[in-house]
């Protein structure tokens, strides 16, 4: 059986955006860590402030490694977070969710809400202590 697993932990329905989902439940500390760079078209590139990067994304790695990650991070466009999703893969392919109780970006209540809607086919849920990186589900 084919399953869909993604290291990007948002699972929006058609028309929902990552920003909609991240604001659905309280608890995310991501907004306070952002360093926007305005662009000429009215949008902005968003990076995480280097002084806050480790606590937000890399608390389980050395300071040296977190510092290296902070200075080499690539920004995300604010429009990428606020644009509604197209037809989701999970509507046809059973998804696999790894929920992280220590994720500072997406509160576990929001993760669970995305994983448990009744219209998703045969969702599998794995509890994790931190958000997993790319790779196959456990």
List keywords for this structure.
two-stranded parallel ribbon; 5 helices; 138 residues; alpha+beta; globular
Description:
The chain is of the alpha+beta class. It has 5 helices and 5 strands. The protein has helices spanning 18-22, 50-57, 63-72, 78-82, 108-115, and strands at 34-38, 44-48, 76-77, 96-100, 124-128. A 3-stranded antiparallel sheet has the order 1-2-3. Strands 4-5 form a two-stranded parallel ribbon. Helix 5 (108-115) links the parallel strand 4 and strand 5 (124-128). Helix 2 (50-57) packs across helix 3. The radius of gyration is 16 Å and the shape is globular. 16% of the residues are buried.
| Mean of all residue-level pLDDT scores | 80
Radius of gyration: 16 Å
Largest sheet: 3 strands, antiparallel
> Helix and strand string, N-terminal first?
HEEHHEHEHE
Number of strands: 5
Helical coverage, percent range: 25-40%
Structural class: alpha+beta
Number of helices: 5
How much of the polypeptide forms β-strand, as a percent range?
Answer: 15-25%
Give the distance, in angstroms, between the N- and C-terminal Cα atoms. 16 Å
Low-confidence stretches: 129-138
Strand arrangement across the biggest beta sheet: 1-2-3
Query: Judging from the principal axes of the Cα atoms, what is the shape?
Result: globular
């Amino acid at each position: 059986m084919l399953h869909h697993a993604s290291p990007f932990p948002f699972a929006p329905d058609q028309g929902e955006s990552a920003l909609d989902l991240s604001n659905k439940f309280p608890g995310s500390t991501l907004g306070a860590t952002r360093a926007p760079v305005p662009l000429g078209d009215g949008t902005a590139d968003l990076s995480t402030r280097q002084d806050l990067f480790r606590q937000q994304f890399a608390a389980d790695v050395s300071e040296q490694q977190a510092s290296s990650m902070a200075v080499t991070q690539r920004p995300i466009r604010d429009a990428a977070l606020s644009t509604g999703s197209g037809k989701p893969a999970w509507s046809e392919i059973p998804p696999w969710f790894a929920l992280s109780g220590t994720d500072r970006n997406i509160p576990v209540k929001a993760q669970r809400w995305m994983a448990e809607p009744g219209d998703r086919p045969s969702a599998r849920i794995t509890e994790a202590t931190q958000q997993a990186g790319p790779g196959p589900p456990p």
